[in-house]
Amino acid sequence: MELFIDPDADRSVTRQLYEQIRDAILSGRLGPGERLTPSRAVSAELGIARSTVTDAYESLAAEGYIEGRAGGGTVVAGGHGSYPRSPPPGALAPTPRSAALRRYDDDPQAEAAFDLRPGRVDPRLFPAVVWRRCVLSGLRRVSAQYGDPAGTFDLRAALSRWLASSRGITLTPEQMVVTAGTGHAIDLVARVLLSPGDVAGVEEPGYPPVRELLRSHGVDAVGVPVDEHGIVVDAIPPAARLVYVTPSHQYPLGVVLSRRRRLELLHWAGRHGAAIVEDDYDSEFRHTTRPLEPLHRLDRDGRVIYVGTFSKILSPALRMGFLAAPVTLVPAIVAVRQAIDWCPPPATQEALTGFVDGGHLGRHLRRVRAAYTPRFHRVYRELLDRLPADYRPLQTHAGLHLAVVGPDTASQDDPAHALLRHGILVASLRRSYQNPGPVTGFLVGFGALPTEQTAAAVDALATGITALTGR
């Protein structure tokens, strides 16, 4: 441990050393058996006489805090209970704007018998062997210097080719920016396009982290209603400078933005001089119908910023994503990125480049689709069959979660908290609304649910709802 001396203190240097080491032992920072720095090294580091250090050590040994060990130097003795000190309250406070923000998932590491939260993926499907090989290969190529804030050119080129083949989007590497996921991409866009007091349109209900992110920038995130055709374009505030949408699989309800609405939204943005952020977070998982064209593909004016992530495709632990922006915005986005955290992790970029260019991403997607699609159909069928009569899953055709709605007369307590007592983790549908009113429901994610556990999980869910509502 580091030791410090204050030459102006009214206590001797020996006493200062004694108190620091004693306090470290009593607070648990030094545990039984941990070795103390030799007195000769301490005296050399602090520029004090060795006898000063040995005097302090002898006092600690005399009181039983430390002991000599043959061939092992001086170590902390056992038998002293630690008394961790509470941190000081602090004289600092967050701004009212940041203090008003809410976390979407209060405990991301929470565990239960069945984890049915959205956004989870099956870790057993992660291509660990291939990914490890790509990482090792990438480490041999990676530079030891800072990288390009936009990401390596090779990765951006690989991503542009992949999007062209998988989503029919024509992009150049110069339009691509590698990010740490969807939230990071939208943060960069907000910093470049919006100022405090600006208005942004977000889906209602929608993805709460994006709403909170925009508010952290002082932006007025106005909820725009969603119906069976997607976002209601006529309800977008005329003052909105940006509209955030999830057209391929609306979060959380699962509806698909119709082609007519897509064209209406593009025309609206052109008339009002606004930007559109298209979050295509899980369009790779289509279970029944063919996907509609991305907004970006229909865009003729350069108003759509396309955002994607590898959290659902590969793993949220990688923290890798991307955005595709009009070339007029890229220089500012890259400058902001450099100011925030300089560049994406070079080693991970090299690994992902090899993974994409080596054809592993395409093979992995075919494998996970073959696993998730039967799971989707089974979960949907089980929910229809086993839930109480007044609870029903909303129909959807894509993604890794389903929205379940209940009666408006149900308890206004958050069902997510109540179901946790029955060993089930779900996300609250109510928290997806800015003004929830009598909304009752929850989100059932099946990405991390083994197919063979589907019936047991839905049975537990139904039992929990029955206990909650008395139905």
TrEMBL record:
It comes from the Bacteria. Keywords: DNA-binding, Pyridoxal phosphate, Transcription, Transcription regulation. One of its GO terms (molecular function) is DNA binding. CDD domains: AAT_like, WHTH_GntR. Pfam families: Aminotran_1_2 (PF00155), GntR (PF00392). Residues 11-79 form the HTH gntR-type domain. Residues 77-96 are annotated as: Disordered. In the C-terminal section; belongs to the class-I pyridoxal-phosphate-dependent aminotransferase family. PANTHER family: HTH-TYPE TRANSCRIPTIONAL REGULATORY PROTEIN GABR. This is GntR family transcriptional regulator. It comes from Planobispora takensis.
